[in-house]
Amino acid sequence: MIDWKECQQILDDTLTRGALLRTSTDTFYLSYAKLTNREGQVGIEVLYRVPTELTSRGLCFLLTHFDRDSETGKVYLAYSDTEYIQVVPLPTDQLLSATTLYRQEYLFLTNEILPGLGREKNWVIHENHCFQRILLDHLFQDCWYQHIRKGPVPAYRQLNLDQLGRLLRSTHQMCWMTHAEVDQQNQQSLHWRRT
Q: What dotted CATH number matches 4-90?
């Protein structure tokens, strides 16, 4: 048995190299997984991708226990006495597929969905490059080009799978933000650029 902090570290390490989420019936690409511990109750938030769908799905639930098989690298996350999910390392032959899906989803959301929402909700921003700037700056908690190269290779193509997963989670969250929240995100991004 491992504690929740060790479990989160294992999940982070696995997500950096790529991960699959397995249920009793299906297998999905896992782009994000974060454990929370509130007053002794451990929960998990996941963002996973069905390859045939345009965007990822999110799920949150409380865990009853969790463990790791050190031989296979699998992490078992139980949410009842009999039901659990597994997080397993992504096979090398699927790495390109997962990366491509995450990149396509990010571009779809930032080029189509967010600009449409920006115009519809009268947000202060509505251009795709503005959303991309804000999201990348918040990923690094700083001006993004202080951390990755600015140039002929787009920033999103330089991210590892863990960074792409966190970027996708933030992108999905932005779709549900209020005018004031988007403005605050924009102002913070601009502040990082001035300092």
A: 2.30.30
Question: Which residue would you say has higher pLDDT here, 184 or 61?
Answer: 184
Tokens at residue 38, please?
A: 């509130």
Residue 174 to residue 70: CA distance in whole angstroms: 37
Q: Where are the domains of the chain?
A: 4-90, 94-194
Between the alpha carbon of residue 170 and those of residues 96, 111, 114, the distances in Å are 22, 15, 12
Q: What is the pLDDT of residue 195?
A: 87
Query: Residue 33's pLDDT is what?
Result: 95
Assess contact for 35 and 178: CB atoms under 8 A: no
3-state helix, strand, coil split of the chain in percent (to 5) is: 50, 25, 30
The model carries a pTM of 0.86
